[in-house]
Structures are given as structure tokens and as C-alpha cells.
Design brief:
The protein is an alpha/beta fold. It has two domains: about 5-235, EAL domain (TIM Barrel); about 275-420, 2-Layer Sandwich (Endonuclease, Chain A). It contains 14 helices and 15 strands. The protein has helices at about 15-25, 60-70, 70-90, 115-120, 135-140, 140-155, 170, 175, 185-190, 195-210, 220-230, 290-310, 325-340, 410-420, and strands at about 30-35, 40-50, 95-100, 125-130, 155-165, 180-185, 215, 235, 285-290, 315-320, 340-345, 360, 370-380, 380-390, 400-405. The strands form two sheets. Strands 1-2-3-4-5-6-7-8 form an eight-stranded mixed barrel, surrounded by four helices. A seven-stranded mixed sheet has the order 9-15-14-13-10-11-12, with helices on both faces. Strand 13 and strand 14 (about 380-390) form a beta hairpin. The protein starts with 15 loop residues before the first helix and ends in a 7-residue tail after the last helix. The model is unreliable at about 1-15 (pLDDT under 50). It comes from Microlunatus capsulatus. This is EAL domain-containing protein (Putative c-di-GMP-specific phosphodiesterase class I). InterPro entries: Cyclic-di-GMP_PDE-like, DICT_dom, EAL_dom, EAL_sf. Pfam families: DICT, EAL.
Length: about 425
């Protein structure tokens, strides 16, 4: 990954040990089984990276060193190659499914071509699910959505990892649309409380709407397994079923339960020219109004977002930076502090137009520059104000727009994705 720091402030050269690991294919993969909880049958494996025996063998040490020395992209690519090469060599093909991780910081430099080429070498079809975390969306929204779209085009699946570790992960379920939701290990290992109930309300609502599968991590005891089933998980992973191994059993040696990934394709794939207003279904009744009413409707949606708090994603467009007034900046700085993710877009806006607020400058020819949009999305609420400028002229407050106020969840999700797909990485 290209450093974003000036040349004279970049990280120091990598230590010899880490450089040798990368130069001599010192990364290996072990494979931890994933099982069907009701029957104990194997459904697949998660590929886990390991370094050579010594101080860099543990993955946390390995990745910490790579981050410190600016080699995260190179290490991440090496881990993916190792995961697929090992799976091909071990014959971990369909009906088994292979789960592979990708680090969020390197999405823009993690092309899928190398994975596709390695998968093609398998003697049978290699079923792949790419694992991401909510950190990927907060750090690199546009790249993540592009990666997810490419994964779907390949016929592979997507898993959202560590759901429940942070409230923000609940907000992004509908944005990422994972086929598999991996529940953080604390959900099965700790006593049920209000936080667990909130998480499971959101997760089960998403699973019911989408058909996504729930997989519980960290199952180490029979009690953990029962807790996972009580939470709605049908799949499990943990030491009760096996640790990572160099010699995983292939589909000919064990009873396999094939995964049925049911999440549908994105109804409106994010693209550089798709706007939130474009996401309105054909035939949606449009109203005509001045900007004065739109401002008040926007503020009302902002109130809803503040009420929803840290399980909410907010996106807004203001056409041009001059419309993002100091009062508006204060309101949106507050939203950014109190929600999972808030972004604003407009011609002339910077990457951080208010403290903690993500911004995205719009090109003058971007069709979103003609729109006034506000989207609010959370596990149990969705609303969007989607308006297009009629260029009627006159005083700013009297400018007229065609608009729709919608609570249709599919429309709000698509409109939110259209906005997030334009947000550059956080620097």
C-alpha cells in the first residue's frame, strides 16, 4: 500500500526477520473447522495465518510488525495466497466452503485477481467466502462496496466478522449485505444482558429479511454451543470443534453439510453514476417543494438519527459547500459523534468538514451535485429524503426541487450505498 505520509516521515525499514518471511514465502495457513451446530457436520474451514516458528509465528505479532513497518498490504496478499494454495493442495473443494480474511486497511491494494487465479487451480470448484469487518466500511467505504460487488460477481460469498463487538457493526449489516454474520465470541461466552439482547434483535431481524446465516465464534464448551443455538446461530466455530490444523480433513473423509448462501444480489449495485434519487422505484410519486421545506424535513431526519444513536448510519448531500453552513456543521459534528457513521457530500467539501465528520467532495459533473439527499439507516428504522434540483432560480430558500420522502427499506439501503460509494478513505 502506498504510504500517505511524507517521504521523510515514513515508517522505518522493516526488520530483517519480517522481510525474510515475506521474501521466502514464510507465511503458512492453518484451517479451523466450521460446523453445523445441530448435527456437528463440517461445513468448511476458516484459513488462519501463521508465521514461521519464533516471535512472528503469532498472527497478532505478525500483523503488528507489518503495520509498524508499512508492509500490511504485502503481508495481507501473502496470507491470501497461502490460504488458497493450501486449500487447493489439501483438496478443500466443494461442497466445503473456505473463509478467507482481508484486512480493511488494504482494500484498495487487494485485487481479487490473485485469488481467482489460485481458485482456478483447484481440481474441483473452490467455494470462497470473503470475511470483512465493520472497520473496513468506516475506513474505506467506497473500496469495500466495490470489493463486495466484485465478490458477488464471482459467485463467492461475504461474511461480516465480529458482529456485536462494536455497536457500529449492527448499523452496517444492511449496507454490506453479508451472506454470513459471524457473532463475536463474547456473545456466547458472557452472561446474557441488555447489550446482548439489543445485538440479537438487530442480527435476527437482518437474518430474517435476508436469509443470511448466523455463525457463532468462540465455542469452547457444550454450554457455549447451547448458548449459540439459543441466540439463533446455526453454525459454529471454536475449540470445541477443533483448533487450526495443518492437515484439515477433505470432503471425501468427513460428512459435509453444504452451506446454502441465500443473500440475494444487490438490487441497485453501487456505481460511480448511480445517485440516491436514481434509487427511487419507477412510478414513485414525486412532490414539488422549495428548499425551505426540505431543510426542515432534513432536520427531522437528523433528530431520528440522534435518537437511534450508535447503530445508525447517516448520509447527506448539500450540493455545494456554501450550503453547508456553520450551524449545519455543528449539527453534523454532533451526529458524527453520536452515530456509527455519518458522511456529507458536496462540491467543494473537504474530507473532514467538521470534527469527526467524514466528507466527500463532489465533482461538478457528478449528478449527485444536483441533489439534496438525507438517508438514515439502522437495524429497525429506515428513512430517506431524496430530492433533485429543478434549477428554478431565485433566492436560495425558494429554489424548487422534486422530492420523495420514503421509508421503503430497500430504497433507503440503496440510496445510502450510493452515497457511501463516493466517500474516500480516511487519511
Amino acid at each position: 500500500m502506498t504510504s500517505l505520509l511524507p517521504a521523510d516521515h515514513r515508517a522505518p525499514a522493516a526488520p530483517t526477520a519480517l522481510r525474510e518471511v515475506l521474501d521466502h514465502d514464510g507465511i503458512r495457513s492453518v484451517y479451523q473447522p466450521l460446523v453445523e451446530l445441530a448435527t456437528g457436520r463440517l461445513v468448511g474451514y476458516e484459513a488462519l495465518a501463521r508465521g514461521p516458528v519464533g516471535p512472528l509465528e503469532r498472527p497478532d505479532h505478525l500483523f503488528a510488525a507489518a503495520r509498524e513497518h508499512g508492509l500490511l498490504a504485502e503481508l495481507d496478499a501473502a496470507c491470501r495466497r497461502s490460504a488458497l494454495r493450501g486449500a487447493v493442495g489439501q483438496g478443500l473443494v466443494a461442497p466445503l466452503t473456505l473463509f478467507v480474511n482481508v484486512e480493511p486497511e488494504v482494500l484498495e491494494s487487494a485485487p481479487l485477481d490473485d485469488l481467482v487465479a489460485l481458485a482456478a487451480q483447484a481440481p474441483g470448484r473452490l467455494r470462497v467466502v470473503l470475511e470483512i469487518t465493520e472497520r473496513a466500511l468506516t475506513a474505506r467505504p467506497a473500496e469495500l462496496l466495490q470489493t463486495v460487488q466484485r465478490v458477488r460477481e464471482l459467485g463467492w460469498g461475504v461474511a461480516l466478522d465480529d458482529v456485536g463487538a462494536e455497536s457500529a457493526s449492527l448499523a452496517f449489516l444492511e449496507v454490506v449485505r453479508p451472506d454470513v454474520v459471524k457473532l463475536d465470541l463474547r456473545l456466547v461466552q458472557q452472561r446474557p444482558d441488555r447489550a446482548v439482547a439489543e445485538i440479537m434483535n438487530a442480527v435476527n431481524a437482518y437474518a430474517e429479511r435476508s436469509g443470511a446465516l448466523l455463525l457463532a465464534e468462540g465455542i469452547e464448551t457444550e454450554q457455549h454451543r447451547r448458548a449459540a443455538e439459543a441466540l439463533g446461530a446455526t453454525l459454529g466455530q471454536g475449540w470445541l470443534f477443533g483448533r487450526g490444523t495443518d492437515h484439515p480433513a477433505g470432503p471425501d473423509a468427513v460428512d459435509v453439510a453444504p452451506l446454502a448462501l441465500a443473500t440475494s444480489a444487490d438490487p441497485v449495485p453501487p456505481g460511480p453514476r448511480v445517485t440516491p434519487f436514481d434509487c427511487l422505484p419507477a412510478g414513485t410519486p414525486l412532490r414539488r417543494s422549495t428548499k425551505r421545506l426540505l431543510v426542515q424535513l432534513s432536520i427531522q431526519l437528523e433528530r431520528e438519527a440522534r435518537r437511534l444513536g450508535d447503530t445508525c448510519v447517516v448520509g447527506a448531500t448539500f450540493q455545494h459547500a456554501r450550503h453547508f453552513t456553520p450551524d449545519t456543521a455543528r449539527r453534523y459534528a454532533g451526529l458524527a459523534a453520536g452515530t456509527a457513521f455519518t458522511c456529507v457530500l458536496g462540491e467543494g467539501l473537504g474530507d473532514e468538514p467538521a470534527p469527526g465528520l467524514r466528507g466527500a467532495p463532489l465533482a461538478a459533473d457528478d449528478p449527485v451535485a444536483d441533489e439534496w439527499d438525507v438517508t438514515v439507516l439502522s437495524p429497525h428504522f429506515s428513512a430517506a429524503l431524496l430530492a433533485r434540483d429543478l434549477r428554478s432560480g431565485g433566492p436560495d430558500g425558494e429554489r424548487e426541487f422534486n422530492y420523495a420522502l420514503t421509508y421503503r427499506r430497500e430504497t433507503v439501503v440503496a440510496a445510502t450505498r450510493a452515497l457511501l460509494g463516493r466517500v474516500a478513505p480516511r487519511r
